[in-house]
Structure formats: C-alpha cells, structure tokens
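Hi R.,

As promised, here are both runs. First protein below:
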Amino acid sequence: MMSSTSETPSLRVLTYNVHGLRDDRHALASVVREAAPDIVIVQEAPRRFRWRTKCAELAHSWDMVYAAGGLPALGNLIVTTQRVRVHETWCLRYPLTPGRHLRGAAFARCSIAGSDGYELRFVVAGTHLATDDVERPRQARAFTDAVGAITAPVIVGLDANETPGGPSWTMVADGRTDAAVAVGDDRPTFSATRPTRRLDAVFVDPRWTVTAYKVIATDSAVAASDHLPVLVEARPVA
C-alpha cells in the first residue's frame, strides 16, 4: 500500500511499458491519473510518424507534460507534472545489431521545490532492454556507464526484459536500491493478465530511501497494457 510520512520532499515515480498504445487507452489514462505520479518513465511510447504530437497527447491524457524521449530515445519517454522542473534532457541510442530492434534510453535532469527554499535535485533515466540474450547485456552496460557518469542522484525505471539475478538486471542494479527488494515485495509484472515474471523495475540512488512501492494490478491496468506498472515513492536520506 502506498503510504509515507516525512517532512522532506518526496517523489512519486511510475515506470510503465504501455505496449505501443495497442490496448485500452481510456484504461491506461485511468491507471496513470489514479496513481498520481510526479514522473512517468514510459517504454514503448510513440517513436514514429507524428511522434511529438502523439507523445504530447499521451502526456496530456494523463494530466502531465512531455519532458524527454520519443523518437530520439527510440520509444522511451519521460513525462512529468507541473510540480517537476525539467532543466536538461538527453537521449542515448544503443548500437544497432543487424536484424534486431533499435533501442535507447531517455534522461531528464529535474528538480522539485520544497519548503524553506529547499530544492530536491535528481536525474530520471529510463530504458527498455532487448529481448535477445546476447544483445541485452551490451545495452545494459552502455546504459549503466551513462548513468554512472551522472553525479546527481539518479532514479532508473525500465523494462529489463529479464528477471532479477540475470546479467543485465544485475548490472543495472549494481550500486542502486531495487525498490521492490527494499520493501520486500517482488511480485511479477508480466504478463498483465497472468503475471509470472518481474521484468519492470525502479532502482533508486543509495542517497535516497524507498518509502513506498506498489505493482498496480487493477482491472484497468490489465486492460491497459501487457505489463503492470510499478509505482515507487522515494525521498533523500535524512
């Protein structure tokens, strides 16, 4: 159950593979709005014709705004509420393996204003790794190298296409807190109709603490995508 108590500012992050928007769009909007995240890290967002408009429309349907990603991040997308100030965005493209799907990552440097002039600064990063067992670890290494070069606290959301303990998962998790492990809730996220594997995760910088975690498995979530979304609340360690 999502709950937390603290005087320091907190951040609500949702990571969500939206299945290329091929499912129930009304249910999808309902799931996100009810979760009330500050940030959504999206996989399989629009990345082709009219992708800017489609990404903006998707964010608007969630009462949020486009921040980063889309085509430049090859379907990875970051959207935020007006509470979040986005200072800088950038994208990463992984090397193309002939015959495989081109993939990448999206990044956004953000802040949230707190009380008494306090400002919470962090970077959000999202990616969707390959289904191929050879290609996926190479992408994970490129992603973790990019994240490791960032000095600010980083919150990672992804569809790993791999379960905990796998080589790619282990690379991304190294030095970060797996939000599910932090609260002792490792329930599966895929497939939405019959979940058997935990492919979707949020990893939190060790300078932050996870205060709440939830896999959203409502009827609307089952109708909205083939993945269940993961909602995490976190804040800096006092």
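And here is the second one, sequence first, then its structure tokens:
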Amino acid sequence: MSDAPDPSLLEALLDSWDHNNIILRNLLRALPEGGLEVRAMAGSPSIAELLTHIHYVRLVFVSEDAPEYARDLPEEWVAERDPDRIARLLDDSAQVVRDAVRGRVEAGRDMDLHYDHPILLLQHMIWHEGYHHGQIKLALKLAGHPIADAEAGPITWGVWMRKT
C-alpha cells in the first residue's frame, strides 16, 4: 500500500459505506407485511435470506482479509422473520467492515487475501449489496408488492444525494 490517504477522503468513503447500510435498512423497513418471505420465484432465496446473506458476506470477507476484526461467522441463508434482528445484524456487520477498512488503511496494510487496497472491500460490498437491493425490489414487484418510486426515492437515492 502507498502513503497514508487524506483523512477527509477516508472519512468520506466510510460515510458512503454508512449511507449504503442506511439504505439497506430503509429497504428492510419499507417491506410490506410478509415481505421477508417473498421470493422472486420458486427456488429463489427469500428476501430474509438475501438480507442474512448480505450480513454473512460482509463478515466472511472481513474474516478472510482482516482477521483481526473478524467475528464468528453466522449461517448464510437464514429465513429470519424479525426485521429488528435483521437490522441489528446489518448494523453490526456494517460496523465490522467499517472498522476493518479504517484499521487497515490507517495502518497502511493491504488486505490478506482479496483486494489491492482496503477501500476495494467497501466498493465490492456496495456493488454486491446494490445487486441484491435490486433483486429484493424485483421480487416484491413480481409478488405484487412493488415499492412505489415516490416511496423508494427518498429512502434510497435521497440518502445518497442529500447534503448534510
């Protein structure tokens, strides 16, 4: 890894990670009654399983790339029915990723297995979670429970674009 980055740049990148987690939790909170059980089609993971998969993937990549920040790995595809528990899991794993990236960047250390730079872990996670965000919205639409653009915009794009 090269010289230490501008601290304000690191903060902006970590802030983008926080925004990503807020958007995911907002989507969770916008699910209709029974939404966690929705599947795009038979054999597809449920929305609950997609969300617990996201939690798992965050933790498994940290365990492989910055094991000093690792937590015990949960099961991957869990059909959790409690949205409050899922929100707590997402918050917890988001903090683990945040801490791992900050720690490795500030220490000037590369990741152990993947990525040429710790920031690439954040980019991978945001891309991965955006992919599943789209799957969740499509599954809801196919099940006859679409989230209207007027509702989705402020809780997703609005979070990214809103100045503080």
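A quick note on the second one: DSSP finds six helices and no strands in the chain. Let me know what you think.

Best,
J.
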